[in-house]
Amino acid sequence: MLNLVVALPSEAQPLIDAFGLSRQQQSQAFPVYQSADCCLVVSGIGRCHSAAATAWLAALNPVKNAAWVNIGIAGHKNKPVGSAFCAHSIEDMAVSRTWYPVQIASTLDSLALQTTDYPIINYGNNTLHDMEASGYVQIALKYSTAELVQCVKVISDNENSPASTIDKSKAQLLIGERIDEIRTYTNHLLTLAEELKPTDIQAMLSLFTAQWRFSVTQKRQLHRLLERHQLLLGDLDHLPGELTQLKSTSEALAWLHAGLSAIAFEPAT
After folding, report:
1. Residue 220 and residue 252: Cα distance in Å, rounded?
2. Strand 97-99 relative to strand 84-92: parallel, antiparallel, unpaired?
3. Are residues 76 and 166 in the same domain?
4. Where are the alpha helices (H) located in the chain, listed in sequence order?
5. 140 shares its domain with 253
6. Residue 19's closest CA among 191, 192, 140, 175?
7. Residue 231 within any structural domain of the chain
8. Number of domains forming the structure of the chain
9. What is the CATH number of the domain that holds 14?
10. Domain limit, last residue, from 195, 227, 252
11. What is the pLDDT of residues 107-133, one digit of tens each?
């Protein structure tokens, strides 16, 4: 299953046409379009709307380890308008938190992406700018492995062509002109989804390493701690909900240690 999250109806229309999607009338919170193997939700502008729409789509289609892609327009200091990129990092500027999507084989070059609450006037050096990706990624990672949660952006504005020049027809045209590249990218992702059959531990490792940069030693510690959690509790389903409260690799490892201690000393009933 391929899940697409877009902000605007104008961005969605070329995707709806290309993937042969139909409107699902029972979806009332957000517009949802669907075929047998692809779902698309239109979130509206902003990271909070994007997060809510991603959660809504996941609830409508609870397919474990589905492929997810946030597709839309973004600004950049000097990349040509109409060029397409995937994101190798997604930084939420409001909360100073960064996610690192696992890069897959792709014909698209990758760039860092920053999500802000307001349109950017002063572009950062070699950085994509949008208003939705961080909201999407933090939710999608709860439902799939890091390899299968990706972000593709088409440049809509730069220093020579400001955001004030963008309208609905331009946004639709920009996405439409990159449909072939987007289809190639999503096909790669769907092939990877078929190949990946992660164990609970592998999936949880991906979830942790997508949110923080672990050293080689820390990754070994993380793997051992997750093995212990699974051994003692039978699964790791209790872990993802707490991750948003943690701010670093050391906090994450300490939290896992503390959880094991609590389990070990819990009195028998």
Report:
1. 13
2. antiparallel
3. yes
4. 9-19, 47-60, 133-140, 168-176, 179-195, 200-211, 216-233, 249-264
5. no
6. 175
7. yes
8. 2
9. 3.40.50.1580
10. 195
11. 899 999 999 999 988 888 899 999 999
Q: Are strands 149-157 and 22-23 parallel, antiparallel or unpaired?
A: unpaired
Confidence of residue 268 (pLDDT cuts 50, 70, 90): very low
User: Which among 147, 179, 183 is positioned nearest to 66, based on CA atoms?
Assistant: 147
**pLDDT by residue (tens digit) across 84-114?**
999 999 999 999 999 999 888 888 999 999 9
Q: Which residues span the domain enclosing 21?
A: 2-195
- Nearest Cα to Cα of residue 153 among 56, 207, 79, 224: 79
Residues 9 and 60 in one domain: yes
Q: If pLDDT is split at 50, 70 and 90, which confidence band does 263 have? A: low
Q: What angle do CA 76, 182, 148 make, to 5 degrees?
A: 95
Predicted confidence (pLDDT) at residue 224 exceeds the cutoff of 70: yes
The reported pLDDT for the residue numbered 160 is: 93
Between the alpha carbon of residue 5 and those of residues 79, 222, 246, 250, 269, the distances in Å are 23, 31, 26, 32, 46
Together in a domain, 232 and 165? no
Measure the CA–CA gap between 251 and 266, rounded to whole angstroms.
22
- Cα torsion 71, 75, 76, 80: sign: positive
Single out the residue of 45, 260, 261 nearest to residue 168, CA to CA. Answer: 45
Beta-ladder partners of 39: 3, 34
Nearest to 227 by CA among 196, 199, 254, 206: 199
The C-alpha atoms of residue 172 and residue 256 are separated, in whole angstroms, by 46
Q: What percent of the chain has pLDDT over 70?
A: 92
Q: At residue 226, what is the residue type?
A: L
Final residue of a structural domain among 149, 176, 195 = 195
